[in-house]
Amino acid sequence: MVNIRVAIDAALRRRAVGKDHAELFLKTAKVLYFPQRTSTAALHQLKGTMPEPDRQRLAGYLRSPEAPDAKREDALALLDRMRQDAEQYETVPVPEVAAR
Question: For residue 1, which of 25, 28, 36, 37 has the smallest C-alpha distance?
C-alpha cells in the first residue's frame, strides 16, 4: 500500500486524479488480497465504478515515467549506499570467524 499511496499522492498533485477518485482508488486497492494488490488490479476493479475517462487518465499517469515508484527508489538508494560504503575499503572486509 505504501507504493500505491505515494503514487496516488503524486497523481493528486499532478491533477491526474481528483480527491474523491483518489480515495475510491485507495479503498479499492486496500481490499485486494495483498499479493494481488497492484495499481493495475485496482484500476481493473474500478471498471464501471469510476467514470472511464477519469480511470483512463489515472491509469495513464500511473503507467507513465512521471509516476513515482517508492519501492524502486528505496532499492536504488540502498544499492547506492552499499556502493558508497564498499568504496571506503581498499579490499572487501572479511568477517572474522572463530576457529574451534
Answer: 37
